[in-house]
Amino acid sequence: MNLVQSLQNQQLKDKVPEMNPGDTVRVHSRIVEGDRERVQVFQGTIIRLRRGGVNANFTVRRIASDGIGVERTFLLHSPRVEKVEIVRRAHTRRAQLYYLRGRTGKAARLKGRREEQAQATAPAQE
Description:
CATH architecture: Roll
Structural class: mainly beta
Number of domains: 1
Number of strands: 7
Order of helices and strands: HEEEEEEEH
Distance between the termini: 51 Å
CATH class: Mainly Beta
Low-confidence stretches: none
Mean pLDDT: 88
């Protein structure tokens, strides 16, 4: 392994949730304002997810006040991203959900994904 790859591996975060396009996430990011620092929460739907080691990023879209769409791209392994919480999972058939930009209201909804509960449905052995 060369020097660049070893430096990139040091930057990778240990705990990264399993995310997919369509999932609703809550991203806690650090914002610096002058000499003060605070954590701001951005909640929305993942419309794009680019994997690729230390350069992995994802774009989150939410509808702000007055129906205006706001998109924000986060670097997954950035020190500015505190944590990413998965609020809701959705089933999609596309890798990029750019078509959500043209939809509003109920048309922009995504189907929920059922979580596999193998332990709950398996019969108990006695």
